[in-house]
Amino acid sequence: MKSEVTNAFEALEDLQMRNRVKQLEGENAELQRQNAELMERCKTLASRAPAWPKGYRPTRKAMDDRKRHYNERRPN
Q1: Residue 1: enclosing H or E segment and its boundaries?
Q2: The pLDDT value given to residue 38
Q3: Quick one: pLDDT at residue 76?
Q4: How many CA atoms lie within 13 A of 2 on its CB side?
Q5: In the chain, what is the greatest distance between 2 CA atoms, to the nearest angstrom?
Q6: Best exposed site among 27, 32, 48, 53 by fewest CB in 10 Å?
Q7: Are 32 and 26 in contact (CB under 8 A)?
Q8: Torsional sign, CA 50, 56, 60, 63
Q9: 48 exposure class (CB count in 10 Å sphere: 0-12, 13-18, 19+)
Q10: What is the DSSP-derived secondary structure letter of residue 35?
Q11: Could you give the CA distance from residue 27 to residue 35 in angstroms, rounded to a whole number?
């Protein structure tokens, strides 16, 4: 009797593990598909040229002798 109960529990555990493995394999396949889509989106976004807002003109300011960077200041 005891061996039959043990075999039944082992069979139940085996069935539960197989179902869990199938569930995890399905989730893994879905994550792989989403990862491939995101990689493609990142590739297209990274390869396109930057677009500045309309009317924006980046300018470079000339540095005067009076103005120094913070790390170049000397105490008087």
Answers
A1: none
A2: 97
A3: 56
A4: 0
A5: 97
A6: 53
A7: no
A8: negative
A9: exposed
A10: H
A11: 12
What pLDDT is stored for residue 62 in this prediction? 62
DSSP secondary structure code for residue 76 in this structure: -
Q: Which amino acid is at 60?
A: R
- Exposure string for 60-71, b = 16+ CB within 10 A, e = fewer: eeeeeeeeeeee
- The answer to whether 52 and 58 are in contact (CB under 8 A) is yes
Can you give 41-73 as a three-state secondary structure string? HHHHHHHCCCCCCCCCCCCCCCCCCCCCCHHHC
Total-model pTM: 0.54
- Kindly report, residue by residue over 20-68, the tens digit of the pLDDT: 999 999 999 999 999 999 999 999 999 988 777 888 877 766 665 555 5
Instruction: For residue 35, give both structure tokens.
Output: 């990862």
Question: How confident is the model at residue 4, as a pLDDT?
Answer: 79
CA-based angle 26:14:28, to the nearest 5?
Answer: 15
